[in-house]
Amino acid sequence: MLYEELFKLYRSSPEFEGWIPLDSQKQYAVVTLIGAIVCIAIALNSISKSRKASIPDYFKFFIMSIIGSLFLGTATVFLTDSFGVYV
């Protein structure tokens, strides 16, 4: 493919619009990071009691760990999108 064809194809393609604007991704990153810290703290607190942990405690730990991990992954994506563009 020649450069002229590629440039013509680039000009004719529709402009990309992001789902979440780049300017607001920093705020979403902070909120999801706080949510991740809270969920992981709740998960660790559910099994760190001095008494013997029961099945519901392990289930609560499992669910809160999954939610915290999802929040942490989302925060990582938002942080790399918002700060990686400017570096």
TrEMBL record:
A Pfam family: Ost5
UniProt-recorded name of the protein: Dolichyl-diphosphooligosaccharide-protein glycosyltransferase subunit OST5
Assembly information from the UniProt record: Component of the oligosaccharyltransferase (OST) complex.
Compartmental location: Membrane
Main subcellular localisation: membrane
Described purpose of this protein according to its UniProt entry: Subunit of the oligosaccharyl transferase (OST) complex that catalyzes the initial transfer of a defined glycan (Glc(3)Man(9)GlcNAc(2) in eukaryotes) from the lipid carrier dolichol-pyrophosphate to an asparagine residue within an Asn-X-Ser/Thr consensus motif in nascent polypeptide chains, the first step in protein N-glycosylation. N-glycosylation occurs cotranslationally and the complex associates with the Sec61 complex at the channel-forming translocon complex that mediates protein translocation across the endoplasmic reticulum (ER). All subunits are required for a maximal enzyme activity.
Transmembrane annotation, as ranges: 28-47, 59-79
One cellular component term from this protein's GO annotations in UniProt: oligosaccharyltransferase complex
Signal peptide range: none
Originating organism: Lachancea fermentati (Zygosaccharomyces fermentati)
Phylogenetic lineage: Eukaryota, Fungi, Dikarya, Ascomycota, Saccharomycotina
One GO term of the biological process aspect: protein N-linked glycosylation
Membrane topology: Multi-pass membrane protein
